[in-house]
Amino acid sequence: MVTVAVNRGRPGGVRCKICGLKTPADVEAAAQAGAGYIGLVFFPRSPRHLDIAQARELALLAPVGLAKVALVVDADDATLQAITDAVPLDLLQLHGRESPDRVAEVKARFGLPVMKAVGVAEAADLAAIADYEAVADQILVDAKAPKGAALPGGNGLAFDWRLIAGRPWRRPWMLAGGLTPENVAEAVRLTGARQVDVSSGVESAPGVKDAARIAAFVAAAQG
Q: Quick one: average pLDDT of 12-21?
């Protein structure tokens, strides 16, 4: 059994989610950096995809205070049941085309808080946020994937953060999309985000996390 220490970071600071972890070393790096969440990806087309046994191993390594998030894309009930039965989780992240009704259904059926991802490329895309705020526990505001993209997120793309600057929020929310150790402080300053999500921005290659970049990202986000 590997023991992972956690650095809880600065109290009241920005909470960071390190998404797409694949190894015990990734979990250790996120914990030691002071991340608030780790993301476990269940999407076979992603280079960050985990099978259920792999995800369970990583989730069991996460120390108290490091929330475990399962990222799924238009998953059916059987898939969600298999994941939630085996993997200790704190949050489900729905990152596909799930409707508000489907979000409510997943919450009721599986008894876990749900974070719904909303893709943004232009101001018109913000209209969907209100519909999901009515049913989701949290909103993840991500850059909209390009048409025909293989992945709904984790593409290293950002959107114009000014689109959400000053927006009133009914639910806790998290900023994603093209964030890196180099730009996350500016993103937080412009948007007022208290939670941020990163995947490709802390990698040395697709699906390969870099511990130094994880530490730098959390430090920059938390100021």
A: 94
151 has a pLDDT exceeding 50: yes
Q: Catalytic pick from 16, 19, 26, 197?
A: 19
19 is catalytic: yes
* Neighbouring C-beta atoms of residue 109, cutoff 10 Å: 12
- Is residue 197 among the annotated active site residues? no
**Tens digits of per-residue pLDDT, 63-103?**
999 999 999 999 999 999 999 999 999 999 999 999 999 99
Helical packing angle, 52-61 and 77-86, nearest 10°: 40
Task: Determine the pLDDT at residue 1.
Answer: 40
CATH number of residue 165's parent domain: 3.20.20.70
Model pTM greater than 0.85? yes
Structural domain for 109, as ranges: 15-222
Output Rg (C-alpha) for the chain, integer angstroms: 16
Kindly state whether residue 216 falls inside one of the protein's structural domains. Answer: yes
Structural domain count of the chain: 1
pLDDT digit string, tens, across residues 161-213: 999 999 999 999 999 999 999 999 999 999 999 999 999 999 999 999 999 99
Domain membership of residue 9 (yes or no) is: no
Handedness of CA 132, 70, 33, 144 (dihedral sign): negative
The active-site residue, picked from 142, 160, 197, 210, is 142
